[in-house]
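Before the break, one more example. Copy the sequence into your notebook; we will annotate it together after we see the structure.
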Amino acid sequence: MTETKTKASSARPSPSRAFFKQMALSLPDAKTHLIFWSLMAGGLALDLWTKKAVFDWLKPHETYPVIDGFLRFVIAVNNGAAFNLFAGKPYFLAAVSIIAIMGIFAVFLFSGGQHKLVHIALGLFAAGVCGNLYDRLFNNGSVRDFIDVYRGNYHWPTFNVADSLLCIGVGLLIISTFFTEKPAQKHDQQHK
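Here is what the structure looks like once it is written out:
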């Protein structure tokens, strides 16, 4: 009798084993990893290279017009976040960036391989966060900015490639919400 129970219980997977099996099924595939990590590494390299190139090339208070009356390169340092929020709090901003990158990695790893647009957005977002985090850690808590978009006397706050990658990533995440069906919507459509 005991032998029969043992055989029956070993045939049925334990709840913890089933949980880990389900998690393994939802991990991204190799192609998804290639997309995410390539975008992250490429975006980070582009950001760090452009910051170094422009900061080595231009002198403080010097500008280089790219599109006259609209776009120019300048030297600017920002010790805050977007629009100079939390200025002068480099440890707080670095901690927020580290938490954000851990969150991005977690979302990527547990999102499966079905939503390529989300993975592209997460790769760009990770590159942007890492680029600005690098500056905070190795540039006295400040981020190097150099892209100045302006019209007349109006200037958009100066930004860098990392900031652009963050904005593109967020935009793609927003767009992906329109193309991703929720399980409840899918269920409702099947029963109509």
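The two ends are 49 Å apart (CA to CA). The mean pLDDT is 85. Try to locate both features in your own notes.
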